[in-house]
Specification:
The complex is a heterotetramer of chains A (95), B (223), C (590) and D (240). With 95 residues, chain A is mostly helical. Chain A has 4 helices and no strands. In chain A, helix 1 packs antiparallel against helix 2. With 223 residues, chain B is of the alpha+beta class. Chain B is 34% helix and 26% strand. Chain B is built from 3 helices and 10 strands, in the order H-H-E-E-E-E-E-E-E-E-E-E-H. In chain B, the strands form 2 sheets. Chain B has a 5-stranded mixed beta sheet with strand order 3-2-1-5-8, with no helix packed on it. The longest helix of chain B is centred in the N-terminal third of the chain and has 32 residues. The two termini of chain B are 40 Å apart. Chain D is mostly helical and 240 residues long. Chain D is built from 7 helices and 2 strands; from the N terminus they run ααααββααα. In chain D, strand 1 and strand 2 form a beta hairpin. The longest helix of chain D has 34 residues. Chain D is elongated. The chains are: A mainly alpha (95), B alpha+beta (223), C mainly alpha (590), D mainly alpha (240).
């Protein structure tokens, strides 16, 4: 019995997550157009919201939260590579 | 027939050639060890009936040794190389007294802009000459490389100088010629059909000769 | 349980009466797909070789009419003399074909497909149909690339690295249609590679036989596994870049065009971010297969199996951090150059470990000089030169005079020809009996090896020297430069050697084709090897084993004391002292 | 159970797990493919970030060119489709009834699967449809991959207010916008086509069961990934 079966965990409340996503999308649009915040703060908040939403999708809809680490690893490995590429090339402009 | 790097013509040639020689010695020793080892093993341990190979899965000590030695050598080599790399390529290393020229590359020619009599670029007495680079011996010179269309590469073998000219970028390169004479610029980056003939002449003058040449250009009307 | 066995027999009988088309053309059998890849990529190897001969003619004898040049159209040669625009097409397509359609499919397409299931004890790939598609897409990509020669304006003209903006703007390169074909072909090839690699990774993770633990896998499988990971992560980047390039060429976007705000260096970053892992895609499988063959030829366990595995992983990991060393002269920030120099130099460490471990394997062995072993030794000695010459370019100041010269050309050929291709000669000879049931001729094989080894060194070693002299890459006529004129005799020498090298390959082609029909029938285990694949008849049947084999030990138990009078102990042989591996537990609900 | 049959089990593995990773091959393969797709979008999105950082002048302001309310609705559609997808998966995997009516003579979970998958397909197709409409409108106004078309409405606006419309970098704006959203749309289209194929070959004939729902789980993973990419794209392309 090495494999945790998908059925062994309690299903998250998908409608609740849908509601989160919905609210956060509206928050994003409001943030971008209505709220009086500075440009940099707006940028950071928007990125945080986007990553948060993406995490919700990955963890619950793609049920990564309930998978083993070795499977999560497959999805995680490309991310530092992407980060290396983008930061390196951007850094070229910074120095 | 030449079997070595081209004759030295700038201050960069000294350290670069020394480093080249050092790496050649390091790699040469490794090469000899590996090839002699292989040949020895091939002869000594050739298969003969009745012999059996020595059953071993390896030796941690040996492996640590031949991991550590290359690692240390490489890090040392990296540190030494970096010193000269910064000296040659870093923008901040350009000497403050450098004489500035502009080199504009396009398919398939080099356009060199000279500062004229006031020794400043961007003024009215600048003049541009096609495919001729005139510089002063022992004078640090900085060129601003730009490109019209595609990527070219400014390459003077005797100066150990190579730098791409990229469209949309202004790249500084500097050098200090140590010998008067005539050299050639080649394009080292494939830039199209005429890549091979993108050639320019380099003239390294004494200061007086250079002044005379500038005066002559001014008299002949700048292009 | 009987039902399971029943389905299995059915599956077998279902395959039995297959038409020629199902069996050899639209096959889903990993071994047939491997053989299909073999023939197609050997064809592209020949194409690439023919292009190289024309390059060598032009460099050795610029301005002289090429023998047989008359059959080429006027747009390529004039009076038998190669035109500059055709010369650039030659260098571009030689690189493209050799890298993407010869060496890469030969190593990954052929041997990942053929060896992985056989060596891990699987009955086929995890997704046989996707595997078939992977082959057909690769062939399609190759044909699209080949079509470049037959469209108006001829083949692409921007070098195999396709540096933008030359490649992005037809008005600057002079080739309109074929530049787009290049991008399309690369996108298709990327798709094929990703499909293949997903298959290899899944098969290795999920379909190993009982007892085939991670550290019992042969190094060839390890290398192919890591290679597949590199391919799966690197090729999409190239695909993305090629799509942007295609859009620049066709629908007016400006990714790489500085005139409208694009960045010319962006292409180089993306290309080499893919390109350096690609370099390891081209050498790691060769290293893996050579490890297998050297252990076999030395009749000794591989020296330091674990460090060999970690060296592969280390090389693959560092491979992601070094792409900038292709761009030292590109105007990239010099501070980045320093970082990339250090990471590049560090790659020498795992590479050195591998070379010394191969030597350690041969040390006190009982060497058998069969053709694969000879080629494998050739690989080690030539890869050493290729690796060492890399240090010159890694040290940035020394790279300045060497960058973009024939020195680089020598380096890449020492790694790709002296490395990968020698390994492939070894691998093709070694697994030929498994593929076709016959042996390749030993005498011709040895003659081919020695002649290739000699002419190969005569061709590529002098390139180091003319590169030091400053001869730039991809120039049509070196004699117009004063500083290159003195070394023209060396260029002539290289050209003659290259022609001889090409001629010697006829021996290999003859041996390969002749042995298909007339080779000696192969015994079941011709090389006295330990691998699982030799427990099968030659050639192996569709579905490989009737029953999944059990694995009892590592792959390199040559000359083990418990083997008795034999000097090898296959992975599948059960000794009285061995216990059966514990099968993976049946999943829940069953 | 004899030894031979055990090994046969591993050869033709019973769903859901297989030796090795503990995950069945289709799912493992899909995850590996998704990892590779991450790198594909890295090339596109990474280039966008790099180009935008290196820009000489500012990008067009959010909402100036692109229709954010319309795309907001579209985002909502895609999020809904993701939820319905996961509901479809849960319906078949758990064999549980959610809040769909019991259909006489049918198993409950199949009813749930059919309904939710259909919702997903409709939402997905709707997304592609809205995106097409958006493209047509944008091109009509003069926003093309090459920048603002000369003489078009947007080109005039850009002349009048170069800062708001990012006149200096319109070419890059068009290039990155159409490439990124276009390839995302291509992914969505592929997903819709695959789901339609599954719907007619597997779901309607009721081939899936609580014991074998591989196709649904695998296509679900792909679909959620496409949704995830859109969440990122919507923020960085439309709102920043």
């Amino acid at each position: 019995m090495t494999t945790p079966q998908p059925t062994t965990h309690v299903r998250p409340n998908y409608l609740l997550i849908w509601l989160y996503l919905f609210v956060m999308t509206i928050a994003e649009v409001l943030l971008a157009f209505e709220l009086p915040v500075t440009q940099n703060l707006k940028l950071i908040l928007l990125l945080i919201l986007a990553v948060w939403k993406a995490m919700l999708v990955a963890l619950f809809f793609m049920h990564l939260k309930f998978e083993r680490w070795r499977l999560r690893l497959i999805f995680i490995v490309p991310l530092p590579l992407a980060a290396i590429l983008v930061t390196t090339v951007i850094m070229e402009k910074v120095f | 027939m030449r079997w070595w790097l081209p004759d030295a013509g700038s201050t960069f040639a000294g350290p670069i050639d020394t480093l080249f020689l050092a790496i050649l010695i390091i790699t040469g020793i490794t090469f000899v060890i590996v090839e002699v080892g292989l040949i020895t093993f091939v002869i000594r341990y050739r298969g003969r009936p009745g012999r059996k190979a020595f059953y071993t899965h390896g030796s941690t000590r040996a492996e640590v040794i031949w991991t550590a030695i290359p690692a240390v050598t490489m890090v040392a080599l990296g540190l030494i190389s970096n010193h000269y790399w910064v000296l040659i390529k870093n923008k901040k290393s350009i000497p403050p007294n450098a004489y500035h020229l502009g080199v504009h590359a396009k398919q398939f020619e080099w356009q060199v802009t000279y500062p004229g009599k006031d020794e400043k670029l961007g003024t009215d007495d600048d003049f541009t000459v096609r495919n001729q680079l005139h510089v002063i011996v022992n004078q640090p010179t900085a060129v601003e490389l730009t490109s019209e269309d595609v990527i070219h590469s400014f390459f003077v073998p005797e100066w150990r100088l190579k730098q791409d000219a990229v469209p949309g970028m202004h790249i500084m390169a500097w050098f200090q010629p140590t010998k008067t004479g005539e050299y050639e610029i080649g394009c080292a980056e494939l830039c199209g059909m005429g890549h091979y003939k993108m050639r320019a002449r380099v003239f390294v003058h004494t200061p007086d000769e250079y002044k005379a040449w500038v005066a002559q250009q001014a008299a002949g009307g700048s292009e | 349980m009987t039902t399971v066995a029943h389905t299995r027999t059915e599956a077998h009988s279902e395959h039995a009466p297959m038409s020629f088309w199902r069996k050899y053309i639209f096959s889903t059998d990993h071994k047939i797909i491997g053989i299909q890849f073999l023939f197609v990529s050997l064809f592209f190897l020949l194409v690439g070789g023919l292009l190289a001969m024309q390059i060598r003619w032009q460099l050795g004898f610029p301005g002289k009419p090429m023998p047989g040049g008359g059959i080429l159209p006027e747009s390529m040669v004039s009076g038998g003399v190669i035109l500059p625009e055709y010369y650039i097409q030659l260098v571009t397509m030689h690189g493209t074909f050799m890298v993407f359609f010869a060496i890469m499919p030969l190593l990954v397409g052929v041997y990942a497909n053929f060896l992985i299931p056989l060596k891990v004890g699987a009955h086929d790939m995890a997704f046989p149909r996707i595997n078939m598609w992977s082959f057909w897409l690769a062939l399609l990509a190759g044909l699209i690339m080949l079509a470049g020669f037959f469209v108006p304006d001829g083949a692409p003209r921007a070098g195999w690295t396709m540096y933008a903006p030359l490649s992005a703007r037809p008005d600057l390169s002079g080739a309109t249609i074929s530049q787009k074909l290049w991008s399309i072909s690369i996108v298709v090839l990327g798709l094929s590679s990703v499909m293949g690699s997903v298959n290899y990774i899944t098969t290795i993770i999920n379909h190993r036989a009982p007892g085939m633990y991670w550290f019992r896998m042969p190094l060839s499988v390890w290398a192919l596994f890591i290679t597949a990971i590199l391919a799966v992560l690197a090729l999409p980047v190239l695909q993305g870049a090629a799509i942007m390039l295609l859009f620049d060429q066709s629908i007016g976007t400006h990714f790489f065009d500085p005139v409208a705000g694009g960045q010319a260096l962006l292409w180089q970053h993306l290309f080499w971010f893919f390109g350096h892992p690609e370099v390891y895609i081209l050498i790691l499988p060769a290293m893996g297969m050579v490890s297998d063959i050297i252990a076999n030829g030395s009749r000794k366990p591989i020296f330091g199996y674990h460090s060999m595995v970690f060296a592969i992983i280390g090389i693959a990991f560092l491979g992601w951090l070094v792409w900038g060393h292709h761009m030292f002269m590109s105007g990239m920030n010099p501070t980045l150059g320093s970082t990339f120099m250090v990471s590049t130099l560090l790659i020498a460490v795992p590479s050195a470990v591998k070379v010394f471990n191969w030597m350690g394997t041969m040390w006190r062995g009982n060497l058998r000089f069969h053709v694969p072993m000879l080629n494998a030794i050739g690989f080690v000695s030539m890869f050493t030169i290729g690796g060492l010459s890399g240090i010159f370019m890694a040290a940035t100041p020394v790279d300045i005079p060497l960058h973009d010269t024939q020195f680089i050309v020598a380096h890449i050929h020492y790694v790709l020809f002296g490395g990968s291709l020698f390994a492939l000669f070894a691998a093709i000879t070694y697994w030929y009996p498994k593929m076709f049931g016959r042996m390749m001729n030993e005498g011709i094989g040895k003659a081919h090896f020695f002649l290739t080894f000699i002419f190969y060194n005569m061709t590529f070693f002098p390139m180091h020297i003319i590169g030091m002299g400053g001869q730039m890459r991809r120039i049509y006529d070196p004699t117009i430069y004063d500083f290159l004129k003195p070394q023209q005799p060396l260029n002539v020498f290289i050209s003659y050697s290259a022609f001889a090298l090409f001629a010697v390959q006829i021996l290999f082609a003859f041996n390969f084709l002749w042995s298909l029909k007339f080779g000696k029938k192969a015994p079941q285990n011709p090389w006295d090897d330990n691998g699982l694949e030799w427990s099968l008849p030659n050639p192996a049947p569709h579905g490989n084993w009737d029953r999944t084999p059990n694995v009892y030990r590592g792959p390199y138990e040559f000359s083990a004391p418990e083997a008795g009078d034999k000097d090898y102990l296959p992975q599948y042989v059960k000794l009285p002292t061995d216990r059966d591996p514990v099968p993976a537990p049946a999943p829940a609900g069953h | 159970m004899t030894h031979a049959t055990q090994t046969l089990d591993q050869m033709r593995p019973p769903f859901p797990a297989e030796v090795g990773s503990g995950v069945y091959s289709n799912k493992l393969g899909m995850w590996v493919f998704l990892a590779s797709d991450v790198m594909f979008f890295t090339a596109l999105i990474g280039s966008y970030i790099i180009l935008r950082f290196g820009m000489p002048s500012a990008w067009a302001r959010p909402g100036a060119v692109l229709n954010v309310p319309l795309t907001g609705v579209n985002t909502f559609l895609l999020i809904c489709s993701s939820v319905s997808m996961v509901k479809a998966y849960a319906a078949i995997a758990d064999g549980k009834k959610y809040f769909l009516r019991k259909v006489p003579g049918k198993t409950l979970q199949d009813g749930g699967l059919k309904f939710w998958l259909l919702v997903t397909i409709i939402c997905g197709a709707g997304f592609v449809g809205v995106q097409l409409v958006e493209y047509i409108k944008l091109v009509g106004e003069g926003f093309t991959p090459a920048g603002y078309r000369e003489g078009s409405l947007l080109a005039e606006h850009a002349l009048a207010d170069p800062v708001k419309y990012g006149a200096g970098v319109a070419g890059m704006y068009g290039s990155t916008f159409f490439t990124m959203t276009g390839f995302h749309g291509f992914h969505v289209t592929c997903g819709v086509i695959s789901m339609l194929y599954l719907y007619f070959t597997k779901v309607l004939p009721e081939k899936y069961s609580a014991q074998d729902y591989r196709g649904i789980e695998v296509i679900g993973l792909y679909w959620h990934f496409v949704d995830l990419v859109w969440i990122i794209l919507f923020t960085i392309v439309y709102l920043i």
